[in-house]
Amino acid sequence: EAKRQGKGRYETFHPELAELARERLDLENDLRNALAQQELFLLYQPIYDISGAHNTGFEALMRWRHPVRGIVSPLEFIPIAENSGLILEIGAWALVEACREASHWPDDQRISVNLSPAQFGRQALVEDVANALAVTGIHPSRLDLEITESILLDASQHNIDILHQLKALGVRIVLDDFGTGYSSLHYLRSFPFDRIKIDQSFIREMCDSREALAIVRAVTGMGKSLEIEVTAEGVERPEQMALLQQEGCSHLQGFLLGRPGLATDILSQTADALEFRSPHAAS
Ligand code: C2E
Ligand code: MG
Ligand code: MG
Ligand code: MG
């Protein structure tokens, strides 16, 4: 009787939890095959210099074309990949795929790849990055690796060692979503970052909120004195861009300047804008 009641209670009060768990498990199973089925792909969002006139590179942003659900956001499937350990394989794939794509671009175009904290668990990350550079032949200085503060939060000495090993390969290390984590400023002393990206929540509010503007101002000022490049993320409106130019940010990224796009579109755009001829084009 008690058992039946218990089961009944579960189904009465939390059916939506059971449904969520089932859905997540389904997605995890599907994700196992996604790489082999070539359902994962990367979009590329342009990053501009502060004038907004020069495209300096692109950030690779992952998408999953699910056979039934359609396009799934990384906000949904990256956590599943992290919890299931699939992120190691998927992350290694993204590094090669992004560098391979960048190998078709002009040499002054950088490529930025997001790393998950879960990829820092093993030494394999350094080998994965070295391998991506070797098989695609792009110069290490063209590759930016984006990490978030959470990498520095746990097992920090191990992770800082790995960051130093990555940096020794000649790539640049970027601190993403700056300002959202716990005690952000502290982390700037623990590792010599090459660039920080101010989180889009501050950019969104900087025209209306004195507090958000004050933070943007403090970060750009700090970037200048520490000689760290500062990219503003999520720039959507001309007023924001004008204000960021006034504050002395170094780079801009956001829908105002360009949305994430397909690799094929990027190739034709860079070809037009920079009169770049791909190695495959007839001369
Ligand atoms: P992120 O690295 O901070 O990437 C920036 C996100 O902001 C992207 O969302 C981008 O599409 C979005 N964004 C760019 N400009 C604007 C704008 O002007 N307005 C608004 N509203 N949004 C803008 P996306 O592509 O959905 O990616 C979300 C997050 O998923 C990323 O945040 C990153 O943390 C993670 N992610 C994406 N691709 C990968 C990947 O290959 N590996 C790992 N580990 N994480 C990834
Ligand atoms: Mg990023
Ligand atoms: Mg970000
Ligand atoms: Mg983010």
From TrEMBL:
Any idea where the EAL domain is? 24-274
Q: Which domain of life is it from?
A: Bacteria
**What is this protein identified as?**
GGDEF domain-containing protein
Source organism of this protein record: Kushneria konosiri
What high-level taxonomic lineage is stated for the organism? Bacteria, Pseudomonadati, Pseudomonadota, Gammaproteobacteria, Oceanospirillales
Q: Which span of the entire protein is present here?
A: 414 to 696 of 696
